[in-house]
Amino acid sequence: MPERFEVALPDGVRLNVEATGPTDAPVTAILLHGWTLDGRAWHRQVDALTSAPAGGAVRVVTYDARGHGRSSCMALPTATLAQLGDDLATVLDAVAPSGPVVLVGHSMGGMTIMEYAHRHPTHFAARTAGLVFVSTTAEGHTHTVYGLSPRIARLIRLAETTGAGVLARCGSWRAPRALLNALQPSIRWMLFGDRCEPADIRLVTSAVARAALRSIGGFRASFGTQHRLDTLAALAHLPAAALVGDRDRLTPPPCAESIAAALPATELTVCPGAGHMLMLERPDVVNAALTGVLRRVLAELPPRIGGTTPAGAGA
């Protein structure tokens, strides 16, 4: 069973954290979820890593970002990617104060990792041993056209940003579950590709229902303006992977391609028929990429006292 606890941030926000695996594991994997989601989005990756024969070589940590899931809401000015990057630095110090970490980010989570690297380069360099980017971007909304014509995409973006501004002023309220159930066809179209399990739609709808309207609306502005390809270019020495679905309407393949171009050693995977929720739609592919990076990180560690670190651990 996962260990559940809270991490208190300097501004009083409390983050819900879940950790599985021994505290003295040689590597810690931190899994960061996307916008309006929560840590449960990674349940298939957590299960795969912790059920592996050598799963004890990895400690797996997920947490709900501020204003999401079971974490508390926050002041509107802190609903930014910059703040999420600062939060990640605090979480790392609290849950993995020593040893290498592999950072795994989906959508907003990937952008959080980039912001952490940009704002805390010394801290990042001292701790981070590997990266996995899932359905994310380093170029704001440069490539986001929702699978539609550019003209229609501009209209949708205008409506989306206007609506986000309204939601941002709604405080810690949450969307009524009945409304979200009615919107499930739209959620399915926006987030998933050719195939979608009913349980996955229910999980996503449940996560959106937990997100404060302030977070749903407040974070949107910084998503569109973040550009961190230069930051990524300085991380080319790290083992890394980037994955995307070819039906992703929010972060389409050019987003992952530009990340891979900035990190030349990155393994790029494009999943046919998949949408934005790769961890749920193609868990085996995501698990393989994650364990591949973990293998490389574990293989590069020095021998541990009392024995050597198994190169295949976490597979």
TrEMBL record:
Keywords: Hydrolase
GO molecular function terms noted in the UniProt entry: hydrolase activity
Record domain AB hydrolase-1: where: 30-289
Statement: the UniProt record of this protein carries the keyword Transmembrane: no
GO CC, any one term: membrane
InterPro entries: AB_hydrolase_1, AB_hydrolase_fold, AB_hydrolase_sf, Epox_hydrolase-like
Hydrolase as UniProt keyword: yes
One Pfam family from the record: Abhydrolase_6
PANTHER family the UniProt entry points to: AB HYDROLASE SUPERFAMILY PROTEIN YCLE (PTHR43798:SF31), MONOACYLGLYCEROL LIPASE (PTHR43798)
Protein name listed in UniProt: Alpha/beta hydrolase
UniProt source species: Micromonospora arborensis
